[in-house]
């Protein structure tokens, strides 16, 4: 580079579909980041629940560096050792018999939906193609996944959406009973809605979906792109609920920051993806697979997963203390280290206003819709960073309350 890029370069050169903050981070270590000016931040955002082990974790750096000196890419004309090792590790740790690797959560969900329709087509015929999803759900940005997602704003302006998709109300089993029928091929659900506001499923709701799918010979798809890979305190959230899906999708923390996605399923269902029915140019990439394998093996340990649950309690205690002082939150909810603080009526729709104030105080956070402050930090964030980050958040909230 002949000159150092600046935030102004984004507006000049990049397509304007994002509105990034003014700070440009250039270095990260653990749960801390530094920008171009050398200013330090504590990271409660985690790259939107992606950096499961923080920034530049030595285990992931070692895996990436070692693989980078061996083999980068082959295509799916060949297989490779890291991809096979990752698939085996995921199968051994979950309900699944088979794994499909890709590059993102959107790709994983696209594959899951196509697989469900193909399976139903092969077993029941063309009529069985209906998909049930839920209002306020989010499943990715491909045209199919934004159509299945329950937030119409993401599909507006792109023309007619695919047919055969209906939406029930999350945590309302009766709404699903009114939609599911013999033409339904799948029900797709997040065990905890992420973009929809950090709303955990009621256990009876997920079990009810399992029972309805069994009754109508439909497939149950769990979108665990955001909840998976240790985020909720288990390797996957379905394990905490005791409800097993037919298909599960994973991404985000699966690669610890390296782009990777996976779709997990059973032998019964996987057979529908015969040779040539689906593919991904970078799926099973050796670099991504090596990093993901290291992430899974590090995360799926009692020390990390129990630590997630302990850190959840710390986050909740700090948020409740801030709320006792300032009264800005109506409810604090979530599982593990995916936590949402819904704004109180007096601050309705103002979660976004906290983000630039927090950044000025040296804290990176997220929102989940206009009314929920979201936190998805590293699963191994040090307790000292939690305390300091919450002190910075309290100062930002105080400024919001004061009208600054």
Automatic annotation (TrEMBL):
Principal localisation: cytoplasm
Keywords recorded for this protein, A-Z: Amino-acid biosynthesis, Aminotransferase, Arginine biosynthesis, Cytoplasm, Pyridoxal phosphate, Transferase
This protein's pathway: Amino-acid biosynthesis; L-arginine biosynthesis; N(2)-acetyl-L-ornithine from L-glutamate: step 4/4
Entry-annotated residues carrying N6-(pyridoxal phosphate)lysine: 252
Localization per Swiss-Prot or TrEMBL: Cytoplasm
Catalytic reactions of this protein: N(2)-acetyl-L-ornithine + 2-oxoglutarate = N-acetyl-L-glutamate 5-semialdehyde + L-glutamate
Miscellaneous information on this protein: May also have succinyldiaminopimelate aminotransferase activity, thus carrying out the corresponding step in lysine biosynthesis.
The name this protein goes by in its record: Acetylornithine aminotransferase
Organism: Halomonas lysinitropha
């Amino acid at each position: 580079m002949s000159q150092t890029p600046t935030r102004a370069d984004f507006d000049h050169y990049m397509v304007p579909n994002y509105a990034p903050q003014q700070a440009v981070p250039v270095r990260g270590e653990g749960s801390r980041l530094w920008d171009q000016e050398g200013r330090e931040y504590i990271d409660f955002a985690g790259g939107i629940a992606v950096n499961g082990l923080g920034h530049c974790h030595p285990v992931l750096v070692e895996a990436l560096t070692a693989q980078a000196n061996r083999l980068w890419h082959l295509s799916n004309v060949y297989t490779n050792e890291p991809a096979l090792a990752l698939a085996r590790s995921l199968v051994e740790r979950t309900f699944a018999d088979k794994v499909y690797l890709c590059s993102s959560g959107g790709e994983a969900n696209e594959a899951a939906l196509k697989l469900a329709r193909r399976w139903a087509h092969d077993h029941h015929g063309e009529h069985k193609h209906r998909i049930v999803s839920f209002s306020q759900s989010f499943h990715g940005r491909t045209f199919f996944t934004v159509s299945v997602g329950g937030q119409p704003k993401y599909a507006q302006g792109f023309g007619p959406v695919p047919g055969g998709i209906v939406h029930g109300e999350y945590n309302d089993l009766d709404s699903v009973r009114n939609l599911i029928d013999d033409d339904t091929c799948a029900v797709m659900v997040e065990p905890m809605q992420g973009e929809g506001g950090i709303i955990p499923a009621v256990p009876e709701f997920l079990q009810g979906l399992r029972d309805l799918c069994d009754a109508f010979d439909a497939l149950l798809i769990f979108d665990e792109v955001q909840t998976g890979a240790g985020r909720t305190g288990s390797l996957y959230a379905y394990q905490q609920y005791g409800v097993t899906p037919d298909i599960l999708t994973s991404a985000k923390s699966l690669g610890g920051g390296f782009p990777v996605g996976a779709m997990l399923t059973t032998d019964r269902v996987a057979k529908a993806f015969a040779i040539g029915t689906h593919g991904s140019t970078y799926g099973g990439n050796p670099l991504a697979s090596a990093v993901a394998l290291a992430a899974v093996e590090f995360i799926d340990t009692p020390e990390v997963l129990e630590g997630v649950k302990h850190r959840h309690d710390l986050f909740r205690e700090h948020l409740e203390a801030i709320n006792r002082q300032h009264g800005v939150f109506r409810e604090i909810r979530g599982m593990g280290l995916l936590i949402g603080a819904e704004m109180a009526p007096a601050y309705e729709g103002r979660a976004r206003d906290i983000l630039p104030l927090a950044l000025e105080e040296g804290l990176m956070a997220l929102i989940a819709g206009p009314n929920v402050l979201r936190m998805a930090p590293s699963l191994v964030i040090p307790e000292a960073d939690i305390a300091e980050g919450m002190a910075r958040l309290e100062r930002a909230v105080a400024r919001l309350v004061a009208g600054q």
